[in-house]
Specification:
The complex is a heterodimer of chains A (about 450) and B (about 100). With about 450 residues, chain A is α/β, with parallel strands linked by helices. Chain A has two domains: about 170 residues, Anaerobic Ribonucleotide-triphosphate Reductase Large Chain (Alpha-Beta Barrel); about 230 residues, Anaerobic Ribonucleotide-triphosphate Reductase Large Chain (Alpha-Beta Barrel). In chain A, about 45% of the residues lie in helices and about 20% in strands. In chain A, helix 2 links the parallel strand 1 and strand 2. In chain A, helix 2 packs across helix 8 and helix 6 packs across helix 13. The longest helix of chain A has 30 residues. Chain A starts with a helix and ends in a 9-residue tail after the last strand. Chain B is an alpha+beta fold and about 100 residues long. Chain B has one domain: 2-Layer Sandwich (Alpha-Beta Plaits). Helices cover about 35% and strands about 35% of the residues of chain B. Chain B contains three helices and four strands, in the order βαββαβα. The longest helix of chain B has 15 residues. The radius of gyration of chain B is 14 Å and the shape is globular. Classes of the chains: A alpha/beta (about 450), B alpha+beta (about 100). The interface between A and B is medium-sized, with 24 and 30 residues.
C-alpha cells in the first residue's frame, strides 16, 4: 500500500516543526585487546582504532542523514571501561591522566565531540587500578575536552559501595573547582545498575559483555510527544497513553531502520535502540511541557509523579512494540539545565530538589544536570548520591547523579553553562551533615530482591 | 548502467503556499538529474498546502546530497519547505 500524503506530512512535520531527531549514534568499541604493560603501546593501538572507526561513523551518519531526511544530531564513541586498560600499568594518577589525554586526542582526530567510558564498575569493591582512576578523574576530565567519565557505584545484586561514594563526593567538588561554573562536572555521571549499552553521554561505555563493536542508537522527540498530547486535550488517561504509545512506536521504528542501516554500513553488530525522551535547549523540546500539556499545573506540582510515570510507561510500551532491540535507559530524562520548562518550574519554586528526587523513582535515569551551591560539603554530595542510588538499588532500575556544584554561587542564582548545556538555577540543598552515616563506610547490603535465584 | 529493475523510491515533500510554477520547477530539476517522477499528490491540511512527489532516483546522475541542495535552493526562492526522503522511512513508521 502506498504511503498517503497524510502520513508523509506527519513524518515531515515531526522533523521540521517538532525537533524529531536521532539524538545520537554511538559506536561501542572494545579495547580489551589493546592492553599492554607499556602505556605507549596501549595508547597507539587505542588511538588507531578510535580514529579509524570514528571517521567512518561520521561519514556514514552524514550519508544516512541525507537519505532519510532525519537529523543525526550527535555521533559518539563509547569504549571499554578505562579502568580495565589501566590494570597492567603503573598505579599512578599520571598514567590515568595520560590515557585520558590519548583518548581525547583520538576523539578530536576523528571529529567525535564526546567519547565515553573513562570510568569503572566498582559497585562491590575497587581494585587498586580503579581507585587510581577515580582519584585521577578531576585532573583527567579537566585536562581533556571530549572525554566523559562514568562510575557504577551500586547495583541491586551487589548493594551500595559507600567507600567509593565517599571518594566521589570529593572528586566532584575538586572537578567543579577546576572549571568555569563547575561545568566540568557535566562530564561525569555516577550510577546504580548502569546499562552496558546506553548510547547517551555522559554515562555511555562499552560494557564487558559487549562484542568487539556495537552500534547503538538513541532516539528522542519530546516535541513530537508534546504535540500529540496537546492535540488530545480531552481524552481520558488510557487513551492518552495510547496516543503517546503510537507516536513513540513510529519514532522508534525510524530509529530501528536507521540504526540497522548504520550498523550494516559499518559492518558491525547492531546493538540497541534507546528510546529516551531527552530535552534540549530548543524551545518546545521539553519534558516539563509534555507533563504540563497532560494537565499538570506546573512541573513539580502534585500530580507530576503520576503524569511522569504514565508518560514513561507509554514510551516504553510504544518502543517495545516497535523494536526487539529496545534497551539502554529507554524512558524519559529529566535534566534541569537542558529543559526550559524544568528551569521555569525551579525558578517558580514549584520544583524542589526533593521533588526532583521523588520523580527519579519513576523516571528512567536520575538527578541530572542540576546546580547546587559550590560550598556544599563533599559529605553532603556523597549523601545525596547515596540517596539517589538507593532508589535504583531498591527498585531494580538505573539511577544516576550528574550534579554541578557551582563555585561561589548561592541558591536562587542562575548559572549559564552555554550551548547545549543550557542554564540552571542553583537549587537549595539541606546542609545538615550525614557524615557520620556515610563515614561508617563499607557496603550497604543488597536488598532481598537480589536473592531471587 | 545500472540494472533497470532496481528502483530507489524517494518522496519529495513541498509545504507552504500553493502558487504557479512549483511542479514545473521541480520537474526541471528532476529531469536534469535523470530522476523519474512516478506520482504527484497534493492536499490542504489546516490551511497548509502539502504536495508529495514520488520519484525514483536509482538512475540519478547526482547524489542525494546534491539533489537536496537544489531543492533547498528552489525552496528558498519560492518560500516553500521542500524535503526529500527515502521512501523506506515512511514504510518503517507507518506500516507494520
Amino acid at each position: 500500500m502506498t504511503i498517503s500524503v497524510e502520513e508523509v506530512f506527519e513524518t515531515v512535520r515531526m522533523t521540521l516543526d517538532h525537533h524529531f531527531d536521532i539524538r545520537t549514534v554511538t559506536l561501542g568499541i572494545n579495547l580489551k585487546d589493546c592492553v599492554d604493560r607499556d602505556l605507549k603501546g596501549l595508547t597507539q593501538r587505542v588511538q588507531q582504532r578510535i580514529v579509524e572507526k570514528g571517521r567512518l561513523l561520521n561519514e556514514y551518519a552524514d550519508r544516512i542523514e541525507h537519505k532519510y531526511g532525519i537529523p543525526i544530531t550527535n555521533r559518539r564513541i563509547a569504549v571499554t571501561p578505562a579502568s580495565l586498560l589501566l590494570e597492567p600499568l603503573p598505579r599512578t594518577k599520571a598514567t590515568a591522566v595520560r590515557l585520558a589525554k590519548a583518548l581525547d586526542v583520538a576523539a578530536r582526530k576523528a571529529d567525535i565531540d564526546f567519547l565515553g567510558g573513562f570510568g569503572a564498575m566498582v559497585q562491590k569493591g575497587m581494585t587498586k587500578a580503579e581507585e587510581t582512576l577515580i582519584d585521577a578523574l578531576p585532573e583527567a576530565l579537566s585536562k581533556t575536552q571530549r572525554v566523559c567519565g562514568f562510575l557504577n557505584l551500586a547495583s541491586t545484586l551487589a548493594g551500595i559501595n559507600m567507600d567509593a561514594i565517599v571518594k566521589v563526593g570529593h572528586v566532584i567538588k575538586d572537578l567543579a573547582h577546576r572549571s568555569e561554573n563547575g561545568i566540568g562536572c557535566a562530564k561525569i555521571a555516577v550510577f546504580a545498575n548502569v546499562p552496558e549499552d546506553n548510547p547517551f553521554m555522559a554515562g555511555a561505555h562499552h560494557g564487558i559483555g559487549e562484542p568487539d563493536f556495537s552500534l547503538n542508537i538513541g532516539i528522542s522527540g519530546p516535541g513530537v510527544v508534546r504535540d500529540v498530547v496537546a492535540r488530545n486535550p480531552d481524552c481520558d488517561l488510557t487513551q492518552l497513553s495510547e496516543v503517546i504509545k503510537r507516536t513513540v512506536f513510529k519514532i522508534t521504528r525510524a530509529g530501528e531502520l536507521i540504526g540497522r542501516e548504520m550498523a550494516e554500513l559499518m559492518k558491525v553488530d547492531f546493538g540497541i535502540v534507546d528510546v529516551s525522551l531527552a530535552a534540549t535547549t530548543s524551545s518546545g523540546d521539553s519534558i516539563a511541557e509534555i507533563i504540563e500539556a497532560m494537565g499538570v499545573g506546573q512541573m513539580g506540582a502534585p500530580g507530576t509523579t503520576a503524569a511522569l510515570a504514565l508518560l514513561i510507561d507509554a514510551v516504553k510500551k510504544g518502543g517495545a512494540m516497535a523494536s526487539g532491540n529496545v534497551g539502554g535507559l529507554s524512558g524519559t530524562f529529566i535534566p534541569v539545565s537542558e529543559d526550559e520548562g524544568m528551569i521555569r518550574a525551579v525558578k517558580a519554586g514549584t520544583l524542589s530538589l526533593e521533588k526532583l528526587e521523588a520523580l527519579t523513582s519513576v523516571c528512567s535515569v536520575g538527578l541530572d544536570m542540576f546546580a547546587i551551591p559550590g560550598d556544599t560539603p563533599a559529605e553532603v554530595i556523597s549523601s545525596l548520591i547515596a540517596d539517589e542510588l538507593s532508589i535504583g538499588v531498591a527498585n531494580n532500575k538505573t539511577t544516576s547523579v550528574r550534579v554541578i556544584p557551582v563555585p561561589g554561587q548561592k541558591p536562587g542564582a542562575i548559572v549559564h553553562f552555554g550551548g547545549l548545556l543550557g542554564s540552571a538555577p542553583v537549587m537549595e540543598i539541606g546542609q545538615a551533615s550525614s557524615s557520620r552515616f556515610i563515614g561508617r563506610r563499607g557496603r550497604v547490603p543488597s536488598p532481598l530482591r537480589a536473592l531471587r535465584n | 548502467m545500472k540494472d533497470k529493475k532496481t528502483t530507489q523510491l524517494c518522496i519529495v515533500t513541498v509545504i507552504g503556499e500553493d502558487h504557479v510554477g512549483i511542479v514545473g520547477r521541480l520537474a526541471t530539476v528532476m529531469a536534469r538529474a535523470n530522476i523519474n517522477i512516478l506520482d504527484i499528490t497534493q492536499k490542504v491540511f489546516e490551511e497548509t498546502f502539502v504536495m508529495t512527489m514520488a520519484v525514483d532516483i536509482a538512475l540519478a546522475s547526482i547524489g542525494m546530497d546534491k539533489i537536496k541542495n537544489r531543492l533547498d535552493r528552489i525552496g528558498k526562492e519560492m518560500a516553500l519547505k521542500i524535503t526529500i526522503q527515502d521512501d523506506n522511512i515512511f514504510k518503517a513508521m507507518h506500516r507494520v
